[in-house]
Amino acid sequence: PPSACPSKISGLDNLRDPRLSKGLAATIEERQLLGIHGLLPARVKTQAEQVSHCLRNIRRLENPLDQYIYMMDLLERNERLFYKLLSENTEELMPVVYTPTVGEACQKYGYIYRKPQGLFITIKDKGHVIDVLRNWPRNDVKAICVTDGERILGLGDLGAQGMGIPVGKLALYTALADIPPYQTLPIVLDVGTNRDELRESEDYIGLRQKRATGPEYDEFIDEFMQAVVTLYGQDTLIQFEDFGKNNAFRLLEKYREKYCTFNDDIQGTASVALAGILAALKASGRHLTDHTFLFQGAGQAAVGIALLIAMAMEKREGIPREEALKHIWLRDSKGLVVKN
Questions:
Q1: Residue 167 to residue 239: CA distance in whole angstroms
Q2: What's the pTM?
Q3: Which end of the chain is more exposed for a tag (fewer CB within 10 A), N or C?
């Protein structure tokens, strides 16, 4: 209409910005107002038609990694279509965007890396972490997923290539919990990697050094946590993901009372596992204390579940913590764990 004002953003900027672009779903009127008329073919599609088109493209790809690349390309082209597709086809596409396919994507991240989807903050930035955070284009961040890449899924130390984990996890925040994507921030804290084959690989995208440890590492993490609160506020959620076992438990205990934070491998997995157990107990009419729990493995997930089961026994059934722990056993690669 004559009274409408053209957008101050150029037509190409509209098409190139994944948060603005609607692709072929832009109406003729929108194309004229946004200055993109003629930059798109004449066909106007509904979003439902776009979703159907994307699904056909994904299903013709047999390799899960190719499907992952397609989804990440879609995220970089048309954000609203990506989340529409993922939220309406979660059962089919969650294994593509997150586990198990994201594991292979992290292993091959150097090959498939195209454009940044989060922040890479390295140990070399120590003393200037807040300046790196300021380079993120949004200042209304509410949820951060951060990893140092030391224990990516069951694949071990992948260093900076662990970025696929926070990107995938935060995509699920939006698709499943309706958290606005512009309020999420994936971060890798690159402190090096202890894998020789990665440091020597011509395709590795991270620091080519062994992992920083000790006071240098702790001071770096402290600076990061303080910088997040300074920029985004005390109520910003900081989710720790896929840190090594020793650092994961230590950092959780260090920060849990000072920051809005949790460790997904220890606490998130545990809450889901305990929910399943409680549902089974409700169906069977039995109690937690009627059972003995044996874990195959003594990593973050197993220990986290074990501790939460013990807490549930204490709070729900009124037995002392020491008595609750007698119902729980862990077995690792060396056998039954009987002492620290």
A1: 12
A2: 0.89
A3: C
How far apart are alpha carbons 285 and 115 in whole angstroms?
53
Neighbours of 283 (CB within 10 A): 8
Amino acid at 192: G
Instruction: Single out the catalytic residue among 68, 98, 109, 232.
Output: 98
Q: Write the pLDDT tens digit of every residue in 204-225.
A: 999 999 999 999 999 999 999 9
**Residue 98: left if φ>0, alpha if ψ -120 to 50, beta else—which one?**
beta
- Report which of 61, 68, 119 is spatially closest to residue 98, judged by C-alpha positions: 68
Between CA 186 and CA 116 the distance in angstroms is 10
User: Pick from 178, 136, 154, 105: which is nearest to 265 by CA?
Assistant: 154
Tokens of 83: 């989340």
- Among candidate residues 22, 84, 142, 169, the one labeled active-site is 169
Is residue 169 annotated as part of the catalytic site, yes or no?
A: yes
Beta pairing class for 184-190 and 143-147: parallel
User: In this structure, are residues 145 and 171 in contact, taking their beta carbons and an 8 Å threshold?
Assistant: no
Indicate if 83 belongs to the active site: no
Q: Residue 172: name the closest of 264, 109, 51, 248 by CA.
A: 264
